[in-house]
Amino acid sequence: MSALTTSLIVCGLLIGGALLGVLLRRLLPDHQLDGHAKDVVRLGCGLVATISGLVLGLLVSSAKTTYDTQRDEVRQFTVNVMLLDQALERLGPRAQAGRVALRAAVVGAIDRIWSDGSAAERPKVFTTIPAGETAFFAIRSIAPSTDDERFFQNEALQAITSILQARLILFQQAGSAVPPILLCILVFWLVVLFASFSLFSPLNPTALTAVIVFALSVSSAIFLILEMYQPFAGVMQIDSTPLRQALAPIG
């Protein structure tokens, strides 16, 4: 289920909670909606609102951290690709096969990274790209004849190892998501809060409009959380342009 669909469902549930409060107000006898009951409900909903706000804030912070971490990994991935290509270029014609394989490997990695952002298309087990293995063994098989060539070969091997590590980290992080049980409990708390809005006060057009705006505001926060947990898909996906531009000089 997409982040937009989930947030719209949450918005509908919150508005439904407000309508549930209207229904309860009509069904309950007046003596059960006196001042004492109102005080108890308000105190309880204040506690629930505090807990909900804390959980929502923690989820936003966690999602932002996850998003920033994966964005930084992509940047480091791009830098390592550029450094690897420069090292191979300095090794001369013998490294040309490695540069060609590197280009094919990076193209394949870009396609897989950004397709991993979709839970439906994400593979369960990580598998290496054949072109990546070809590039590694092509670099490993070079027999350096000078100290400079040995230096650049070691630099190339370190860079390609860092690229593989970054790719594994991105694969593992692509499976990050909000625990469904946590999201369900949070939505339940919010529905209770919205029901309390209309339990003791009638919903005139102004109040109903305010409830709808509040519901949209809360569901938009949940939308942002879900979007940041899938940074390679959706409207907030990390831009792949810098990594694609790094392909220009390769090979």
Offer a quick outline of the entry.
Helices cover 75% and strands 0% of the residues.
Tell me the span between the first and last alpha carbons.
Answer: 40 Å
Counting DSSP E segments of at least 2 residues, the number of strands comes to 0
Structural class: mainly alpha
The tally of structural domains comes to 1
Integer average pLDDT: 84
Give the % helix. over 70%
Question: What do you see in this structure?
Answer:
The protein is built from eight helices and no strands. The chain has 251 residues and is mostly helical. α1 (3-27) packs parallel to α6 (180-197), α2 packs antiparallel against α3 (96-116) and α3 runs antiparallel to α4. The two termini are 40 Å apart. The model has no long low-confidence stretch (mean pLDDT 84).
